[in-house]
Amino acid sequence: MEFFDFGTIFFLIAAVVIFFQLRNVLGRRTGNERPPFDPYTAARSKPQDANGKSENVVSLPRKRAAGEAAEDAYVAIDAFAKPGTDLNKGLRAIKDADASFEPKGFVEGAKMAYEMIVMAYADGDRKTLKNLLSREVFDGFVAAIAEREGRSEKIQSSFVGIDKADIVSAEMKGGEAHVTLRIVSELISATRDKAGDVIDGDPETVAEVKDVWTFARDTRSRDPNWKLVATEEED
């Protein structure tokens, strides 16, 4: 029978102790973990690097600090929507359910999501759409894409920009927050058939597009992401 010498036993014990120390540290949630990225509530900022150049960085809205007065939490909302209006009341209700909600940051994030969705639809990018749309809206978009592909048609699109994006209504439906925006954008878009001929739109003309989109989020969920739940094109 072979026996471990004292040195071997010492190193084995030390290895076990170190393993459990690392497990306790690495396996424990401290509350300081980086939250998942939320394109809807994220706000754009451009800090300067060492060379003075701007870098695109998305910062999430802060959560209400401990002991912060409720009225202080509504300052940004009151500046965004006149106190006493239905819009203000709706935004306040969402703030009560989700302390991280900020209307200006939400609008900036929604604008980013709008461009991503419009271009993903044109490109037939189902993966991107699945992450940004509710199940019902996703099914509708995918059906339209499949129908277009069945006819061997392609959409040629260039996103010019968003002229306006305004929150027109906000409300809580049970534990789910709903925010509706009116978005006015500029887009160059043309649909081509199998032969490459333009059958809809104009590849040389910038068109104004007016949409009314509603985003929703379950405030009871740990998932911070908002999803598009309804679309309507304004005449």
TrEMBL record:
Q: Where is this region: Disordered?
A: 33-58
Domain of life of the native organism: Bacteria
User: What are the GO MF terms of this UniProt record?
Assistant: protein-folding chaperone binding
Q: Which residues cross the membrane?
A: 6-26
Keyword Calcium among record annotations: no
Swiss-Prot/TrEMBL keywords: Membrane, Transit peptide, Transmembrane, Transmembrane helix
The Tim44-like domain covers: 87-233
Q: Which GO terms describe its cellular component?
A: membrane
Q: Which GO terms describe its biological process?
A: protein import into mitochondrial matrix
Q: What is its main location?
A: membrane
Which Pfam family would be a valid example here? Tim44
Q: What are the subcellular locations of this protein?
A: Membrane
Q: Which NCBIfam families match?
A: Tim44_TimA_adap
What is the similarity comment for this entry? Answer: Belongs to the Tim44 family.
Descriptive protein name: Putative lipid-binding transport protein (Tim44 family)
